[in-house]
Amino acid sequence: MVSDVATEVRLATLDEIREEAESCTRCDLYRHATQTVFGEGSNEASVMFVAEQPGDREDIEGRPFVGPAGRLFDAILEEVGIERKKTYVTNAVKHFKFQLRGKRRIHSKPNAGEISACRWWLDQELALIQPAVTVALGATAARALVGKPVPIMKFRGATMQSDKGWPVLVTVHPSYLLRIPDPMDRHAERRRFVEDMRKVKALMKEKALG
To answer: Which residues belong to any copy of the Uracil-DNA glycosylase-like domain (predicted)?
Structure first.
């Protein structure tokens, strides 16, 4: 399980952990990425969204969710009434993994070792934020949080238990919506993602009342 090598949690502040992560060499991805892309958002966020890894744009700017998928994500959060500034967004892996095709850097999926190596940083974020709701955006995030491979389409919209015992709502990554070629299929999948975010909002309200 991913968590076997990521059990130490050293409480500090988010700023201290973020600064420390800038010089992370826990796996080899740092050798080619521009920089570490740490999470950002409210220190008192009731929901934490965990995605896969930074994309090309995020790697250059040093911030999560600033590319096309991030803009779509922001639009859908606004549509369902979740304030982005009151959330915390991060990635399971903090460095951009890619393959060069000419001058283009094409996303490459992180492997189990890279997910495991980066789990330490995710544990620090979770311990400091202590979100009431945690959302896995895609298979890599779900694996990092649950501790084993998760078939996303089978469990999409469902709440699973993390390897640390707290609930994780599983859904697709917004970039999945952008890759669907057929407009009707893309629209249908967007509606499903909106419904998943409505479930997140309902969980946030339930936890707040509880």
So the answer is: 38-198
Per cent of the chain over pLDDT 70 is 94
In whole angstroms, give the CA distance from residue 56 to residue 97.
Answer: 9
Fold of 13-209: Uracil-DNA Glycosylase, subunit E (3.40.470)
Cα–Cα dist 187/209, whole Å: 33
* CA distances from residue 4 to 48, 79, 195, 199 in whole angstroms, order as listed: 22, 39, 34, 30
Domain ranges of the chain: 13-209
Of 93, 62, 81, 60, which is closest to residue 173 (Cα–Cα)?
Answer: 93
pLDDT tens digits, one per residue of 35-75: 999 999 999 999 999 999 999 999 999 999 999 999 999 99
3-state secondary structure of 127: helix
Buried residues in 123-139 as b, exposed as e (16+ CB within 10 A) = bbbbebbebbbbbbbbb
